[in-house]
Amino acid sequence: MARLPISSVARVNAQHTSRGFALIELLCVLAIVGLLAAVMLPGIPRATSRAKLEGFALQTAALLKEDRNAAVARRATVVTRVETASRSIRSGASGRTIRIPSDVVMEAALASRCANRVAGKSIEFFASGMSCGGTVLLSRPGVALEIRVNWFTGSVEVVPGKSV
């Protein structure tokens, strides 16, 4: 068997040791990437999509319709609270609350007086089916939806609004 010069042996050993990564090295890199992802992902803002905005508008319309139907069925006034400051809409019939995300602009145009009382932060539905009426606007850049409550009929509809 022929002996290789020492310099050739060193070259062969160097080639064998630098062929790839050890399993422990790969696991360390994956652990570091996992830690960075765990730290960074919660900080990335998650914007409300158009579909989610439409979902919030439809949930709000459904809640308002439920309150109107409850007022007619109970033959009593039902008050739906619309709180733009706390970004919530609370049913007077069921107590269910819809919370609007902070990246969605929420505005309300409500009657300041209704049935000879101060209203301002609510939509009242009467036993006759009529209401105080009002509009709730939900918008984000590029899309806006209005939830309108007709004062005379109490009907609720979702229509496109002026986008921001």
**What pattern of helices and strands is seen along the backbone?**
HHHEEEEEEEEEE
Indicate the structural class: alpha+beta
User: Could you say how many structural domains there are in total?
Assistant: 2
Report the strand count. 10
Over all CA atoms, what is the radius of gyration?
Answer: 31 Å
Report, as a whole number of angstroms, the end-to-end distance: 83 Å
Low-pLDDT sequence parts: none
CATH superfamily of the largest domain: minor pseudopilin epsh domain
Mean pLDDT: 86
Largest beta sheet, briefly?
A: 4 strands, antiparallel
Task: Give the CA-based shape.
Answer: elongated
Kindly report the spatial arrangement of strands forming the biggest sheet. 3-2-1-7
What fold name goes in the CATH topology slot of the largest domain? minor pseudopilin epsh fold
Q: Which features does this protein show?
A:
about 160 residues, alpha+beta, four-stranded antiparallel sheet, minor pseudopilin epsh fold, about 25% strand, elongated, 2 domains, single chain
Polypeptide structure, described:
A hairpin with a 6-residue loop joins strand 2 and strand 3 (97-99). This protein has three helices and ten strands. The mean pLDDT is 86. The chain is 34% helix and 27% strand. The chain has helices at residues 6-17, 23-40, 50-74, and strands spanning 78-83, 88-90, 97-99, 105-110, 113-114, 117-118, 122-125, 134-140, 143-149, 156-160. The chain folds into two domains: 6-43; 50-160, 3-Layer(bab) Sandwich (minor pseudopilin epsh fold). It has 164 residues and is an alpha+beta fold. The strands form three sheets. A four-stranded antiparallel sheet has the order 3-2-1-7, covered by helices on one side. A four-stranded antiparallel sheet has the order 4-8-9-10, with helices on one face. The protein starts with 5 loop residues before the first helix and ends with a strand.
